Amino acid sequence: MVTGGALEMLWLIPVLPLLGFLVAGTGTLLRARSKGLVSLVACGSVGLAFLLSLACVMALAGLPEHERSYTVTIGEWIAPLGLSWSFRLDPLSSVMILVVTGVGFLIHLYSVGYMAHEEGYWRYFAYLNLFMAMMLTLVLGASLPLLFVGWEGVGLCSYLLIGFFYEKSSCADAGRKAFLVNRIGDASFIIGMLWAFVLFGGTFDIAALIERAPEVAMASPGSVAAICLLLFGGAAGKSAQIPLYVWLPDAMAGPTPVSALIHAATMVTAGVYMVCRLSPIFVLAPSALFVVAFIGAATALLAAVIAMAQDDIKKVLAYSTISQLGYMFMAAGAGAFTASIFHLTTHAFFKALLFLGSGAVIHALNGEQDMKKMGGLKKALPRTYLCFAAGWIAIAGVPLTSGFFSKDEILYKSFLYNPVLWIAGLVGAAMTAIYMTRLMGLTFFGTSRSHDHGAHPHEPPATMLVPLMILAVLALVAGFIGLPAPIGEMFGGHGESPFGAWLHPVLSGPEAAMAAGHPEGHGLELLLMAVSSLVAVGGIGLGLWIWVARPEMASLLAARMGALYVAVRNKLYVDEFYDAAIVRPWYALSRWFGRFDTVAVDGVVNGVGAIMLTSGHVLKLFHSGFVRSYAIAYVIGAGLIVWYLL
Amino acid sequence: MIPFSSVLVVSAVLFVLGLVGVLTRRSALLIFMSVELMLNAATLVFVGASRALGTMDGQLFAFFVMTVAAAEAAVGLAIVIALFRRRRTTDMDQVSLLKW
Hints:
The complex is a heterodimer.
Chain A lengths: L11 H18 L5 H27 L8 E9 L4 E7 L1 H24 L6 H20 L3 H19 L6 H31 L6 H14 L1 H18 L8 H4 L5 H10 L4 H8 L1 H4 L3 H22 L5 H21 L3 H28 L12 H4 L1 H15 L5 H16 L1 H25 L18 H16 L7 H6 L7 H6 L6 H8 L5 H27 L2 H10 L1 H7 L4 H46 L7 H19 L1
Antiparallel strand pairs in A: 1-2
Helix pairs in contact in A: 1-2, 1-4, 2-3, 2-4, 3-4, 3-10, 3-15, 3-20, 4-5, 5-6, 5-10, 6-8, 7-8, 8-11, 8-13, 10-15, 13-14, 13-19, 14-15, 14-18, 14-19, 15-17, 15-18, 15-20, 17-19, 17-20, 18-19, 18-24, 19-24
Chain B lengths: L3 H21 L3 H26 L3 H31 L13
């Protein structure tokens, strides 16, 4: 390879935040108080990582298209399995490191303001930096086990940060729930990974796996499909898909910047990334892709429905995240991996923006999260309102915002794959527009419904506002890197968007074949685009009508819906169902096995003890305490021995 | 020359005297002296056997026994003194604290 320079320092990208973690972690242990140092180290390490990522990606772009894959090995790891600490940068991981370090840096900056008055400032940044290091390991890892190290690492940080306010038992419970639900997915991931190792001839390297995939799939298509499904099981855990999505809404117990960084922009997209990373293997198993697509669509719909009736501002955003992740999987399942990664990127911007904006609202209202007690914040927080509104129209899919382009590409590609998916996606999009408008209406429009907030709602400090503004701009314009073909051509482009062309070498799938199969023009794509624009604008209009123009309408509708509304409000009783169907039977089984311990194992141990005790009680009768009677016993004993020997 | 059987008889008599003393006396000091008597009976057998067999091993063991007896006397007397200081008695029947 003829590069050197920035790419040689690729390994530093995850190591920089790791150093930040070491400093912040040491400070935590030493109970450091001053906040300046840790703010500088934590933000600085991530900022440097972002600059280095930029340099690396530019160096990568300087290479010819088919050499855009650069691996740096910094040491042996598990030599017998051929594993080493290898980091690989290619177009896909380059998109991810830019998103992770870029959004991550903004959120670090935001946290400086948001966490200023909280206990555990050092601990918070230690966890956050460790998360960045782990996420970058996940993204850059060249082998599945190294990816898995990052995968587990981000899970750990997620657990630690959800339970950050561990004095509150609900937070600690939420952390445990996230950890345990993720374990189920991770178990599936490990099985898939090891099976792939065996089936693909003893390699863990992702590039090698992809290279060998076609012949292996020829020989044993069933096993490859099973491996893909197992890996997707891991992705469903991490990326909160049916049936393992239940941890994400509870994860909102963590500090809001954490929700933005981990539970919206980066970590939860790890599953999508992993599926796209292995896309050349997934396309060899159409049945697995079919499952991925439909689970994604079902999740997108279900989560959107639940989001309609939540009152906690963060819960709405959490379900919205699950729903958007569903879109990404739907795209991946339809073979549109580029669209999936495109939506991942735009979603990272607008969802981070929405979470940070909700954090600003919560901050202004002294921790109030219930939207029923908000309202009318447009006047009090004009700048936050403007930023939030950018995120709102982006996620709702108003034309020309980033969310419009990425969601639209997903809808178009899924229409080509299976129109049922398109209908599900379209309904989901309409609901997205409606619940986001509801959120806007209840929070910013109308009049204040707060009961007692002695403090006057105030705009957040600059460290919080600046990241909001940057993200707001990105949420509005980021879509232009991935303009769909028909619009791109209007501006003199040709066919693929710059984003698609950049990712093309790593994400070739049936997508390419599909595009070739529809050369007759862009009529269909433009038509679908018009339909989804109408849906988005219609959804917003309906939402404004119900929750802003006629506020009494909402409760009327709720009353009319009756039981359905109550069920949706209670999250369709999924948690209760899991509790009854899985958790309780599992506890019962555990208790039953526990009885083996108490009856059999303890029985043996206690029995031995009881025998000793009883024999002691019998033997103590022989002890009179009189020395001379001992002496007699001694003489008799000695006599007996002598008699026996003679 | 005294036959070995006579030596054995004398030492057996000594040993039984000592044994009876240990079993019947109450005073710690007297029990002690009786134990010494039993030890000396054993020493006598060693010396007699050494002479009868024409080897030095028995005489060697006689010295061992004397050494052990001296050490035992030192420890034993120390115990008796400590006991007397605490309880103002050396009657072994009064010393039955280990009784359950």
